[in-house]
Each structure stands twice: as structure tokens, then as C-alpha cells.
Specification:
With 418 residues, the chain is an alpha+beta fold. The protein contains 18 helices and 12 strands. Helices cover 53% and strands 8% of the residues. The strands form 4 sheets. A 5-stranded mixed beta sheet has the order 1-2-8-5-3.
Length: 418
């Protein structure tokens, strides 16, 4: 075990010794945001967000960071060039580190701009729409496999394999390797919500090593025999000196993880919301063209990404609060989605809602999600085929939420076909 892991183990043991039930209870009472990490907060974070909103424009966390669940402030910070994802003056890693590199997600301009421009053409709305037959075929095959099964896990049988099939096809991954690549990618994606302990860290490092090893082999193959896939385009950019070998690896890793992470949870959250509101499921069943509207309302009502973080790069004032360079702010996107100042009757799930403001489920500004068009297409097709093929879909048990607060979704969702 490396010295870094040994130190981490000591810290975790000390933290466990301090984390008595009484201490945890007191901490949760002092820190409303801490409730988001409890079982109740994971099951339903929206009352916590309302409490944070009621505290004022910003809630001050004990760490010194501000926290906000107001739509207007979240959008203002996300669009502001005065805030970034890294501390001011902190250069992005140029090579392998002990942590988990999130690629362009963890870069500010100019590195972020350069890397995004290399990948953006493959994810333009026009290019993504051209993949509709691919998505429709994948959804149909999955539903053929489910057939008339009276009970199945929506996540395992449909919500997860659908985007995995699509993103591996876009990356040009052979179907024989797709399952392993997706399994390692799913393990690595759990780092998005933070490291839960030493065992989790070791599992992440193993999965990350396996994933990068698989991409190294794929990249070598594309260097010898390029194709029309995204990896081939990135390999060509590397050959032209527009990105480094390390950046190429990290970008492939990010595209895989981001390519299915949002959609899996979006489909699961959408189906849950629809089944919890039978009148809305009936509306979709009677008019499957409402599938796109169902996707947008789910992104507002119960978004897969619940929060993000920004750091002030210069002194700035927002809503009467002064931020010094280096000050951080947690943006509760899930809370912004239920802000009554932005959405009338925000706790109502309504496919016919026509909001005056855009939701922030895909962020905003420089870091607006590159895969938004793909996620929307997959979820729209996925919901439309599901309601057309299984119009009497219903719950078959209690779903199990992912043990996470940043990424919201279901680890399993038992349903019945009719």
C-alpha cells in the first residue's frame, strides 16, 4: 500500500472513531446540507433544498463555502466568467495523478475550450439526431428481450443498457468489449459523488486502471486502423498535436462515463415520476409524442445531477455577499429546479408545463453539458418505446436509490409489464 493510502487509512479510522451517533445527529442539526447525505435526504432531498432557500440568498456552510438553492443565483454563477471549476492559478494536471481526472469537466479556459472544441462536433444536435435509428433499434431490441415478462428491473434491463449500447457504438467499441468497458465505467462514475472510504478508493483505482488499459488498447488499434468513430477523431487530433496522449485517454474515459451516467438516471427518474403520477402516465400513453416533454419536465422536477461547485476567480459580489478570489459556492441544482420564484407550483409534475426559464439540469455557460442532445434523444426514444410497448407498466416493489447525493437515480427499479 502506498504512503498516500496509508495516510488516508489513518484519517478514515480517526473519522470513524469520532463519528458517533450523537456527533452525527448534532452535525446534521447544525448543517442542513449534511441532511443530503442521510438516508432520508437521499430518498427525498427537496425539503432540505427548501430549507436552504428559506435561509436567504446563500447559506454559509461550516467549511466557509456558500450554498444556494435559488434558481437565479445558480444560473448567474454558472454563466459568470468570474467563477471557475478550479482554484485561481491552479493548473490542471498534465499527467496521471493519485486522484481521478475528470478531463474537461475539471478544466477552466483555455484548456477546457481547447478540449471541448475537439469533441463538440461529434455531439452537435444535427450529428446526434442522425443517430436516432441507432437509439430506436437499441431500445426495440431491449424491449424484445423483456417481452411479456411480468416483472423486471427497469434499470438493469432497460435504463442502463440503452445508453451503454449507444455510447459504445459512438466510440467504436466492439460489442464483445462493451460490457466490460461499461462495468468499469460505472464503477469509476461513483467517484463523482466523492470517496466514501478506503475500500471504495481501492475499488475505484482498480476500475480506473482497467478502464484506462482498455482505452489504451483501443487507441493503439485506431492509430493502426482509424475509423469514423469518436476515438479515431481524437487520435487524429493527437497526431496533429492538438491534445496530448494523456488528455486523449482522459477524454475517452470522460465520454464513456458521461455518455451513460446521466441517461441511466434520467430514464429511471422519469419512469418513477410518471408512475407516481398516473394521470401523467396516462397522458403520455394516450399521446406518446409527449415523450420529449416528459424528458424536459423530469430534468426540471428530478434532475440526475443535483449539485455542482464553483470557485470565485476574482473578488465579486452577489446578492449582497462578497466573494474573495478562491471562495467556493455549492450550487444545489435540484433545489433550483423547485424554486417557486422560477416555477409556479414547482412540486407538481406536469408534462404540459411551459416554464418561462430554462432548467439547469445540464448546467449553463461554459460547462453546459456536451452530451445534452444525446441524453435527450436517448431518454425521449426510451420513454416513447416503453409507453408504446408496455402501456400498462406499473411498480412491482420499492426501488433502491443510489447511495449518493450529487448524482440522483435508482440502482434498481422493479416494475411489472402489465
Amino acid at each position: 500500500m502506498s504512503s498516500e493510502l496509508a495516510v488516508l487509512a489513518d484519517v478514515l479510522r480517526e473519522s470513524a472513531a469520532l463519528r458517533s451517533r450523537r456527533w452525527v445527529g448534532a452535525h446534521v442539526r447544525r448543517e442542513p446540507v449534511a441532511r443530503l447525505h442521510t438516508r432520508a435526504g437521499i430518498a427525498d432531498p427537496y425539503p432540505v433544498y427548501a430549507r436552504v432557500r428559506a435561509a436567504g440568498p446563500f447559506l454559509r456552510h461550516s467549511s466557509g463555502d456558500r450554498v444556494t438553492a435559488h434558481h437565479g443565483l445558480c444560473e448567474q454563477v454558472l454563466r459568470s466568467r468570474d467563477f471557475g471549476v478550479r482554484p485561481p492559478g491552479d493548473a490542471a494536471p498534465a499527467g496521471p495523478t493519485a486522484g481521478f481526472d475528470l478531463g474537461m469537466l475539471d478544466r477552466d479556459p483555455p484548456e477546457h475550450t481547447r478540449l471541448r472544441r475537439l469533441v463538440a462536433p461529434a455531439f452537435s444536435a444535427r450529428r446526434i439526431e442522425a443517430h436516432r435509428p441507432l437509439v430506436e433499434g437499441a431500445a426495440a431490441r431491449l424491449l424484445d428481450g423483456i417481452g411479456t415478462s411480468t416483472r423486471f428491473d427497469l434499470v438493469a434491463r432497460y435504463a442502463s443498457p440503452l445508453p451503454v449500447t449507444v455510447i459504445t457504438a459512438l466510440l467504436g467499441v466492439d460489442s464483445a468489449e462493451a460490457a466490460d468497458l461499461a462495468r468499469h465505467g460505472a464503477a469509476v462514475s461513483t467517484a463523482l459523488d466523492g470517496i466514501r472510504g478506503l475500500r471504495h478508493l481501492l475499488a475505484l483505482q482498480r476500475a480506473s486502471a482497467e478502464l484506462l488499459g482498455m482505452f489504451e488498447r483501443l487507441i493503439d488499434e485506431r492509430r493502426r486502423k482509424p475509423g469514423t468513430d469518436v476515438i479515431s477523431a481524437l487520435v487524429a487530433a493527437e497526431g496533429e498535436g492538438r491534445l496530448t496522449g494523456y488528455e486523449l485517454l482522459v477524454t475517452c474515459n470522460l465520454l464513456l462515463v458521461a455518455g451513460f451516467e446521466t441517461t441511466v438516471n434520467l430514464i429511471g427518474n422519469a419512469v418513477t415520476a410518471l408512475l407516481d403520477h398516473p394521470d401523467q402516465w396516462a397522458a403520455l400513453r394516450d399521446d406518446p409524442s409527449l415523450a420529449a416533454a416528459a424528458v424536459e419536465e423530469t430534468l426540471r422536477y428530478d434532475p440526475p445531477v443535483q449539485s455542482t461547485y464553483r470557485i470565485a476567480h476574482v473578488p465579486v459580489e452577489l446578492a449582497g455577499e462578497r466573494f474573495a478570489a478562491g471562495d467556493g459556492v455549492m450550487l444545489l441544482i435540484g433545489g433550483a429546479a423547485r424554486d417557486p420564484a422560477a416555477y409556479p407550483d414547482p412540486d407538481r409534475f406536469d408534462l404540459h408545463r411551459r416554464p418561462d426559464v430554462s432548467h439547469l439540469a445540464f448546467s449553463a455557460g461554459l460547462h453546459y453539458c456536451l452530451g445534452a442532445a444525446l441524453a435527450r434523444l436517448e431518454a425521449e426514444v426510451g420513454l416513447r418505446q416503453l409507453v408504446e410497448r408496455l402501456p400498462r407498466l406499473g411498480r412491482a416493489g420499492r426501488g433502491r436509490m443510489r447511495p449518493a447525493s450529487t448524482i440522483r437515480g435508482y440502482a434498481s427499479l422493479p416494475v411489472r409489464a402489465g
